Amino acid sequence: MSFFEKWKAVAAMIFVEFALAVVNALFKEVLSRGMNQLVITTYRFSIAVIILTPVACFLERNFISNLTGRVVCSLFFSALLGGTLTQYFFLIGLKYTSTTFSCAFINMVPINTFIMALILGQENINMKCKSGRAKALGTLCCLGGALILTLYKGMPLINQSAPEVEVNHNIKSWIVGSLFLLAGSVVWSSWFLIQARIGKDYPYQYSSTAIMSLFGAIQSAILSLVIDRNTSAWFFKGTLEISTVIYAGMVGSGLCYVVMSWCVKQKGAVFTSAFSPLIQIFAAVIDISILHEQIHLGSILGSILVIIGLYILLWGKSKDTENLMNSPTTEKNGQATLPVTSTPSHT
């Protein structure tokens, strides 16, 4: 296996997490200017549909023949969980908190995904081997880092005389925002597991992302009209709002979802979700260098622990993959013991 083949999935996910961190920073800015959460989501997914549909028709011309009712139903729920509800919950949480704080809750995604995969039998831990112990230790490290990021603020490290952004939020709003962020991390984790199944049944990243975006746009528009019937919320108020929606649609919902779907198909749900903590690191860099926000000791300590846990977990997953490739696949009750780490083959 060449160096590029070995590391291209890692490089792709690092790019995805950086792009999503930029999306979150832009969303925080336009939300502070009063833009509606569901309107942002609707426009974002609509642009993704416009961009991806011609690409899917050109590169995946036979995708319609493999589009069954089961696949359409799966894509509908994929859009509901990974698109509409995740975006809605995270944007509300982002509105009530801050960019770095909201990204810290994304660090819970690998743990949630791993636990869900264990419950559903899509992942296992063999504590008798090094890879199993590494996965368990990496998950605990990520969880510990996420808890530090969330619960321990610590002393400010830069611009100590600058006013704190967080003081503008009262305790009640901060708690409400935290609950929405927690809900968003749970439904986001479930999307990875659904997408793992879709990748096996329907191996067309561009068309599946386009269809999912279409469902997400329809769901978000209906939910927006039910919650808030103020039509003025659908009109842009400035260049920043237009640029944010276009970037979020083309990159955030278009390119990033395609890449994540490909990574889930190639490496599994846990591998793909394990990169989510990097969003918090990139968000902190953006906050400091561009938005000039404060950073605290808790963010540094939590981020270091998350990165350590991330690499331990990825090492365990890579060892599982090597063991699977170097030995016959063991089966139990007619099913492979590690279905998440196997790469599905399609003719």
From TrEMBL:
Membrane topology: Multi-pass membrane protein
Keyword Transmembrane attributed: yes
Keyword Transmembrane: yes
Annotated EamA domain residues: 9-150, 177-314
Entry's transmembrane regions: 7-27, 39-59, 71-92, 104-122, 134-154, 174-194, 206-226, 246-264, 271-291, 297-316
Principal location listed in the UniProt entry: membrane
Pfam families, A to Z: EamA
Keywords: Membrane, Transmembrane, Transmembrane helix
Places the protein is found: Membrane
Domain of life (superkingdom): Eukaryota
Residue span of region Disordered: 325-347
Family to which this protein belongs: Belongs to the drug/metabolite transporter (DMT) superfamily. Plant drug/metabolite exporter (P-DME) (TC 2.A.7.4) family.
Protein name: WAT1-related protein
Native source organism of the sequence: Datura stramonium
